[in-house]
Amino acid sequence: MESRRITHAFAPVFDSESRILILGTMPSPKSRELGFYYSHPRNRFWPVMANIFGEEIPKTPEYKKAFCLRHKIALWDVLRECDIEGASDSSIKNAVPNDISVILNSADIKAVFATGTTAAKLYKKFIEPKTGIPAVALPSTSPANAKAKFEELAEKYKIILDYLK
């Protein structure tokens, strides 16, 4: 597969009530096609989030955004643009980070979480030196991380609840 230059097309989801920031790496081709974060039908992000909050899985971009805001979750990605092959985080080159200060200056963020190893590494390289805020690495909910069982993901993601009390 050939590498393509991708520029992030989604606005961050947040408001002044947001208390945690969840950052992925870059939207997958399927998420870009469907117009919202974690939209690949086999990505387990939304089922995991619904599980830990005891709610129905939000299905549309509007419901997903409302879900995040209702639960004080800011959602974005570490990267603004990069060269990438398909949805393969391991193929990322020439990465340019997003400026998360737009969120940090607007909301009292208590914790930052990175969904997956690559998101955590890129955050540590590009963003943590500027903000001084470390990110908690969570396992990827991507279908590429098939070894992680749903129950294990839900258990790991429950840590975000500690910062929403």
User: Radius of gyration, Cα only, in angstroms?
Assistant: 15 Å
User: What is the global morphology?
Assistant: globular
How many strand elements?
7
Structural class: alpha/beta
SSE succession: EEHHHEEEHEHEH
Oligomeric state of the chains present here: single chain
Summarize model confidence as the mean pLDDT: 95
Low-pLDDT residue spans: none
Q: Keywords for this structure?
A:
165 residues, single chain, 6 helices, four-stranded parallel beta sheet, alpha/beta, three-stranded antiparallel beta sheet, 7 strands, 32% helix
Could you give a quick summary of the protein structure above?
32% of the residues lie in helices and 24% in strands. By secondary structure, it is α/β, with parallel strands linked by helices. The strands form 2 sheets. It has a 4-stranded parallel sheet with strand order 3-2-6-7.
Blueprint of the fold:
Blueprint: E1 4-7, E2 20-24, H1 29-34, H2 45-53, H3 61-70, E3 73-77, E4 79-85, E5 88-97, H4 101-104, E6 111-115, H5 117-131, E7 135-138, H6 150-157
Parallel strand pairs: 2-3, 2-6, 6-7
Antiparallel strand pairs: 1-4, 4-5
Helix pairs in contact: 2-6
